[in-house]
Amino acid sequence: MTSTLLTLAVLLPAAPAPAPKDTTPKGPAPRVVVIQVHTDGLPYFQHNIIELVPQQQTRQVQVGQQVRQVVETKMIQVTRTVTLRLDGEDVQVYGADGKKIDPKEVRKLVRKPVAALVSTDGKPVDPFYLRLAREGTLVIVVSTPATPEGGRDISIPEP
Question: Where are the beta strands (DSSP E) in the chain?
């Protein structure tokens, strides 16, 4: 009986230790994107960013007996699509297990559109969030985030 229990204990894989319930993430949540393959075989993804753009508007205002034209500047939200190729020096790709993936391997892994996670702060995604990702999910870290300030808009010609 003892030998049977020892054999089972050795042959059965140990279950991973559950994460402590009081664990909180140490960074922002990643963004979910779809990686696509361009006609040249290069994987890329697109996402939208929101910029505040000043826009001048003229309106009429009555001051006493007179009507005056007043120019006001308002900040308007504008959505812009940003395209990022996965071959840049500032782009690193990891598996959901945290292991770095060679850029040449990424081309082999992405043959059709696939969902991926992208770090929103240019740092590795906190393991708290990676627990939600299934095996094989790609995690992208761009050290120069694609923001209006960062100016990371890399155009890809339409196929």
Answer: 31-37, 43-63, 66-85, 91-95, 100-101, 114-118, 138-142
How is the beta sheet containing 66-85 ordered, strand by strand?
66-85, 43-63, 31-37, 114-118, 138-142, 91-95, 100-101
Judged against a pLDDT cut of 80, whether residue 111 lies above it is answered with: yes
**Mean pLDDT value across residues 38-49:** 85
The answer to whether position 155 is within a domain reads no
**Average per-residue pLDDT for the chain:** 78
> How many domains does the chain contain in total?
1
Task: Look at residue 86 and tell me if it is in a domain.
Answer: yes
111 part of a folded domain: yes
Instruction: Please enumerate in sequence order all residues whose Cβ is within 8 A of that of 122, keeping only pairs 6 or more positions apart, or say none.
Output: 141, 142, 143, 144, 145
SS3 5: helix
What tens digit of pLDDT does each residue of 65-100 get?
A: 899 999 999 999 999 888 888 887 888 999 988 899
Residue 117 lies in domain:
22-49+80-142
Is 33 within a domain?
A: yes
Q: What's the pTM value of the predicted model, to 2 decimals?
A: 0.65
